[in-house]
Amino acid sequence: MTVGSGQVYVVTGGCGFLGSHLVRMLLEHEKNISEIRVFDLHLDESLRTLSNDRVKVRLISGDISRLEDVREALRGSHLVIHTASLVDVWGRVPASKITEVNVTGTMNVLQACKEEEVQYLVYTSSMEVVGPNIHGDHFYRGNEDTEYRIYHKEPYPLSKAKAEKLVLEANGAKIKGGKLLYTCSLRPTGIYGEGHELMKQFHRQGLRTGRCVFRAIPPAIEHGRVYVGNVAWMHLLAARQLQIHPSTLGGQVYFCYDSSPYKSYEDFNMEFLSACGFKIIGSRPLVPYFLLYLLALLNALMQWVLHGFFTYAPILNPYTLAVASTTFTVQTDKAEKHFGYQPLYAWEEAKKRTITWVKSLEVSRKDLKDVGEKGNYCCN
Ligand SMILES: NC(=O)C1=CN([C@@H]2O[C@H](COP(=O)(O)OP(=O)(O)OC[C@H]3O[C@@H](n4cnc5c(N)ncnc54)[C@H](O)[C@@H]3O)[C@@H](O)[C@H]2O)C=CC1
Ligand SMILES: CC(C)[C@@H](O)CC[C@@H](C)[C@H]1CC[C@H]2[C@@H]3[C@H](O)CC4=CC(=O)CC[C@]4(C)[C@H]3CC[C@]12C
């Protein structure tokens, strides 16, 4: 549907880390829209103030796992960018809830597209639909066609893989009014940037250890990372080109990455944390892998014992250790060839923006005094 001179886009999960950057990206760079519907379970009222005289930002509170909520949000819209998801590999929420949101929620979006005559859907998938698997099979500079032993047992990657399959299978389906539905799926690697909750956790944790990060993963293990602004940019381009060349993009998957350096997860985080005086201790892991794995197992046991009394969900568990310990990097030009994707932000700009944000955590932390910070650096 076109409102006035522009189209109506729906961004599910639009108040999230990626979603909020995506809303801002659409406002700044997409001239063909007149309304952005931000559909989310947890609304961020600050997004409402982003409306301008050309584009209205409309916040819609709803649950993706309720078909009626989704149908109402999509009614009269032109295109959906579906980023809403429970992103949990720490056991914070039950597996059933992850499935309900990530799989049933995606089924509802597809159903609503068909019933509300929405022809275009861009799905935010994940590198996790491919790997890394828990067998330690490295995926080194792989692309969308690279053979890989995909093995999912954890709720999150399983749900993303199931959802992506549903999205791709729906491409070309007849929708109400006799039109066809066109879908594509973007697979970001580990997203970083302003507002990344996990980075906030690493920062908080580091303050408690005197700004020291104790190396746990061999530096040679590389993990693909991508700046949130480039993920948003790729979604905008895919949404635009899916409408112009549906037969090219329809039913396709695209890895989403940029020129961020290939590094171990810890070394990559230090690109930002070191700007706040953090130091990584050890040129190689300080403890042998088997001890780390025992600690991860202990965390999993503690989570099981405390289940029902307290949600114990530390960063380190057998799954996150396996993922962090297995190289997963991508190198592909499929998105460039199909829809002209080139990162909007170079690495230096992405780094600068992220450092500025991490530094703001220092200023805004009300409990800085609680951790006895005041210049208490372990490695002076
Ligand atoms: N964070 C990362 O490193 C990566 C994330 N992704 C994908 O990117 C997308 C966005 O992820 P993030 O921004 O990191 O997560 P996020 O948790 O910041 O954002 C997800 C949004 O979905 C909303 N949501 C959750 N349950 C909902 C429900 N039942 N109904 C409506 N809205 C609901 C949340 O309120 C939140 O605003 C997800 O689909 C995720 O799988 C893919 C690759 C990497
Ligand atoms: C404690 C140390 C071993 C530390 O290095 C652990 C890091 C670990 C928490 C992260 C390492 C790799 C991350 C995942 C990866 O970026 C792929 C992802 C894709 C998504 O769609 C969601 C997030 C994640 C699963 C991401 C989660 C955090 C890591 C496991």
Shape: globular
Q: State the low-pLDDT regions, or none.
A: 375-380
Span between N and C termini?
A: 61 Å
Radius of gyration: 21 Å
Fourth CATH level, the homologous superfamily of the domain at 7-193 and 226-259 and 329-345: NAD(P)-binding Rossmann-like Domain
Largest sheet: 8 strands, mixed
Give the ordered list of helices and strands: EEHEEHEHEEHEEHEEHHEHEHHEHH
Tell me, what is the CATH class of the domain at 7-193 and 226-259 and 329-345?
Alpha Beta
Give the % helix: 25-40%
Q: What structural class do helix, strand and pairing data support?
A: alpha/beta
Transmembrane segments: 286-306
Domain 3-beta hydroxysteroid dehydrogenase/isomerase: 10-279
Protein name: 3 beta-hydroxysteroid dehydrogenase type 7
GO molecular function, one term: oxidoreductase activity, acting on the CH-OH group of donors, NAD or NADP as acceptor
